[in-house]
Specification:
Layout lengths: L3 H5 L4 H10 L7 H21 L9 E5 L5 E3 H14 L5 E6 L6 E2 L9 E9 L10 E9 L9 H4 L8 E7 L3 E6 L4 E7 L4 E6 L10 E3 L10 H10 L10 E2 L5 H11 L1 E5 L12 H14 L3 E3 L19 E4 L1 H11 L2
Parallel strand pairs: 3-5, 11-12, 11-13
Antiparallel strand pairs: 1-2, 3-4, 5-6, 6-7, 7-8, 8-9, 9-10, 13-15, 14-15
Helix pairs in contact: 2-3, 3-4, 6-9
The protein binds 1,6-di-O-phosphono-alpha-D-fructofuranose (AFP).
1,6-di-O-phosphono-alpha-D-fructofuranose (AFP) binds next to loops.
Length: 336
């Protein structure tokens, strides 16, 4: 059967966002405006990433980010591009970036808006120099503070409060996937047109899948329940067929593959990193919103990621995210 959107029409992200907005009578267009601005920033970053080997933009800067990690030049470019694309539209009251320690206020010269945004400008950036896909992740919440300007508490909200979340994968093509709580929709950037075109409306993820994405290098640091869980996924306890190991080391790339093909991405706690590595607000929470909208699940081992109330901007969380049954297996092993 023909899919009317895919086969008989060309739907740009702008058109799709407008059509989605029209379904909500009270919508003011502010959220749509933020999504357009993000799509523009994504095109600019994609353009830079594509030219990474040509221009003088590979390699590290002299600085470290808030996580103590060396900042790549493209990290800095992506961070500044997103801030500049979003700060002046009158739609946001605050921003938080994985690359910036403190909360980022909206400059006083611009109007304050009713939303706040958190983003990881270039996730997986240690992979850039070797031409491996990287991504951008974003999460949008409503302003909850009552003063005229945004406050930290606007950013420190549990994931179930998100009104939109998405990611951009700068891979063999540039793909933008987002949800506003009404399904998960995927767009591919046509580089000739400079437009994101709808390629997959209402993406769903399989109930169980074949891909296992985990860094086995930490095995000796894992707890026994985590080791036993991985034995199960690898089919070594004879209770399931072995999953295929796939680990890029760019969360967005691993997540996107598993969203489409099914399976699980795991970054458990280990003896050296009791909270794992991934950041709750910049990585886990937005992807948890997306995976749940696609029919999957995300937990920290015990708790639903979307129910965790953050206490700081850069807090980390262990993460098990992907197909519902595969995440349920993690819950069983880690709580028995
Ligand atoms: P970078 O942005 O520093 O490359 O970190 C990427 C990341 O946060 C996430 O994208 C990966 O899944 C994860 O780290 C990889 O971490 P390990 O190297 O510890 O497996």
């Amino acid at each position: 059967m023909l899919n009317p959107r895919r086969d008989t029409s060309v739907v740009t992200i702008e058109r799709f966002i407008i059509e989605q907005e029209e379904l909500i009578p009270e919508a003011t267009g502010a959220l749509s405006g933020i999504l357009y601005d993000l799509a523009l920033a994504a095109k600019m970053i994609a353009n830079k990433v594509r030219r990474a080997g040509l221009a003088d933009i590979l390699g590290a800067t002299e600085d470290q980010n808030v996580q103590g990690e060396v900042q790549q030049k493209l990290d800095v470019y992506a961070n500044e591009t997103i801030i500049k694309a979003l700060d002046h539209g009158g739609r946001l009251c605050a921003m938080g970036s994985e690359e910036v320690e403190e909360f980022i206020p909206i400059p006083k010269k611009f109007k304050q808006g009713k939303y706040a945004i958190l983003f990881d400008p270039l996730d997986g950036s240690s992979n850039i120099d070797v031409n491996i896909p990287v991504g951008t992740i974003f999460s949008i919440v409503r302003k909850i503070s009552t003063g005229p300007e945004g406050e930290l508490k606007d950013l420190l909200q549990p994931g179930y409060k998100q009104v939109a979340a998405g990611y951009v994968l700068y891979g063999s093509s540039t793909v933008l996937v987002y949800t506003t709580g009404a399904g998960v929709h995927g767009f591919t950037l046509d580089p000739m047109l400079g437009e994101f075109l709808l390629h997959n409306a209402n993406i769903t993820t399989p109930e169980t899948g074949k891909y296992l994405s985990v860094n086995n290098g930490y095995e000796q640091l894992w707890s026994d329940p985590v080791k036993n869980l991985m034995q199960r996924y690898r089919g070594l306890d004879g209770k399931r067929e072995a999953m295929n190991g796939r680990y890029v080391g760019s969360f967005v790339a691993d997540f996107h593959r598993n969203l489409c093909g099914g399976g699980i991405f795991a970054y458990p706690s280990n003896a050296k990193s009791p909270k794992g590595k991934l950041r709750l607000l910049y990585e886990a929470s937005p992807m948890a919103f997306i995976i749940e909208q696609a029919g999957g699940a995300a937990i920290d081992g015990t708790n639903r990621i979307l129910d965790i109330s953050p206490t700081s901007l850069h807090q980390r969380t262990p993460l098990f995210i992907g197909s519902k049954q595969d995440v349920e297996t993690a819950r069983e092993f880690l709580n028995s």
